[in-house]
Amino acid sequence: MTDDVAGRLADLDARISAAAREAGRDPATLTRIVVTKFHPAGLVERLHGLGVRDVGENRQQELTAKRAELPDLDGLRWHFIGQVQTKKARAVRAAADAVHSVDRDRLADALHAADPDGVPLEVFVQVNLTDDPARGGAAPGDVVRLADHIATRCPSLRLRGVMAVAPLSGAPAAAFERLAASAQAVRTVVPDAAWISAGMSGDFADAIAAGATHLRIGTAITGPRPAHG
Fold first, then answer.
1. According to a count of CB atoms within 10 Å of the terminal CB, is the N or C end of the chain lower?
2. Residue spans of beta strands (DSSP E) within the chain
């Protein structure tokens, strides 16, 4: 099983490098985040042994538990990539090194209030690329205003860029181009917010072509998720 993980990781990294070169980009400028949702902490430890330094979690309870179980993995960064309930902002802040899903003022304020004098928390503004307001993410027209709110009202947060999930319908490439436009707009208020978190197992090549800097890859590396309650 561990050999399977090592093989999948090597294969995926080769595919990322090829996609980057095809887009005229340096593969070294990309951050590959391995999403370990529903997998045991032991897999994170195994991935760390294979050189992985960025892992992602979707649920606060799982993030908190795994980080507590693996306190001594040097250089490992924990990315929270799921939707955050405001009431769980304190727990997320305590366990995450970066939060990719800030989509409203109240959440930004809650993350800031959780540790206003602490080490700055890296955050992304999540952009909703669908027409469904119930989906996670700020509307594209509200992204610049939210970015300005974070930059001016939440000094313990460091805005690094934008994040989105491609819609289930439609071409991912077109969606990621819209995300790139949002990223450019954010940089008018926060010039160094140059990161773009986009691309998963099935569409990372399109994301790379559109300028993604952080790829969130799950099953292509980890294999099928185990059954969960």
1. C
2. 31-35, 54-57, 77-80, 98-102, 121-126, 157-163, 195-197, 214-217
Q: How many Å separate Cα 204 from the centre of its chain?
A: 13
Tokens matching residue 193: 């917010």
Beta bridge partners of 77: 54
pLDDT at 3: 65
SS (H, E, C) 177-210: HHHHHHHHHHCCCCCCCCEEECCCCCCHHHHHHC
Name the DSSP class of 165. Answer: -
Q: 149-193 pLDDT, tens per residue?
A: 999 999 999 999 999 999 988 899 999 999 999 999 999 999 999
**Pairing mode, if any, of strands 157-163 and 77-80?**
unpaired
User: How many residues are given for the chain?
Assistant: 229
Write the pLDDT tens digit of every residue in 12-31: 999 999 999 999 999 999 99
Kindly report the pTM of this predicted structure.
0.96
Backbone angles phi, psi at 187, to 5 degrees: -70, -10
